[in-house]
Amino acid sequence: MTLIAPSILSANFATLGEDIKEVEQAGADWIHIDVMDGHFVPNLTFGPVVVNAIRPYTKLTFDVHLMIEQPERYITAFAQAGADRITVHAEACVHLHRVVHMIREAGLPAGVALNPATPVNVLENVLDDLDLVLIMTVNPGFGGQAFIPQSIAKLRALRTLLQSSGRTDIHVQVDGGINTQTSAMVREAGANVLVAGSSVFTQKDRTAAIAALR
């Protein structure tokens, strides 16, 4: 089953709670929350206070993606604010194994994200502790970017790694440039969780938009 996780980076911030309600009613599975610090990526977005503020608007899973330096400083805060799962970047963690275990100790499923230029073999020593791997299909930092075609080969390499490791239960998530054309390609290559921003939130018929991505 393909899960659709609309990214609130493309929502209307003035009516964020209502936008989240609408995509839930339209059939979204998770709500993806892109947290950026202006250091690891060149943009600033949300903190734990925003996550706490929107938590009452939906019962959907809050999929928090920390695009920040030293994410270990904020894992507890996001968990307490209402995150249901947390993903950190391998590139942002000096001690990735330790950070993954911090997420698990907070009682949440742990994910690791990889930037476009980061090979999948960096995951080999933490696979046993992961619930999700996020393949960035654009360079992180801004919504609305074009899909990087080389991501398909990377997804296939990840699928091979998961199969050889006996961890085919791990969610494979993609984020960046996902639309009705690219969704079919990434699903064929092994992705089962699709993060979509503008291709959901900017559409008049969000139910049809979500259905088209599956």
Describe the 3D structure:
With 214 residues, the chain is of the alpha/beta class. The chain has one domain: Aldolase class I (TIM Barrel). Helix content is 33%, strand content 20%. An 8-stranded parallel sheet has the order 1-8-7-6-5-4-3-2. Helix 2 packs parallel to helix 3. It is globular.
What would a concise description of this structure say?
By secondary structure, this protein is an alpha/beta fold. The chain contains eight helices and eight strands.
Chain-wise SSE layout:
Elements: E1 3-6, H1 16-25, E2 30-36, H2 48-54, E3 61-67, H3 75-81, E4 85-89, H4 96-105, E5 110-114, E6 132-136, H5 151-165, E7 171-175, H6 180-189, E8 193-196, H7 198-201, H8 206-213
Parallel strand pairs: 1-8, 2-3, 3-4, 4-5, 5-6, 6-7, 7-8
Structure keywords:
single chain; about 210 residues; alpha/beta; TIM Barrel; eight-stranded parallel beta sheet; about 20% strand; globular; metal ion binding; EC 5.1.3.1; metal-binding; RibuloseP-bd_barrel
Number of strands: 8
> Portion of residues in helices?
25-40%
Class by alpha and beta content: alpha/beta
Main pleated-sheet profile: 8 strands, parallel
| Approximate strand percentage | 15-25%
Strand order of the largest sheet: 1-8-7-6-5-4-3-2
Q: How many individual domains?
A: 1
CATH superfamily heading: Aldolase class I
Q: Which blocks of ≥5 consecutive residues have pLDDT under 50?
A: none
The CATH architecture is Alpha-Beta Barrel
Calculate Rg over CA atoms. 16 Å
CATH topology: TIM Barrel
| Average pLDDT score | 96
**Shape assignment:** globular
In DSSP terms, counting alpha (H) and pi (I) runs of 4 or more, how many helices? 8
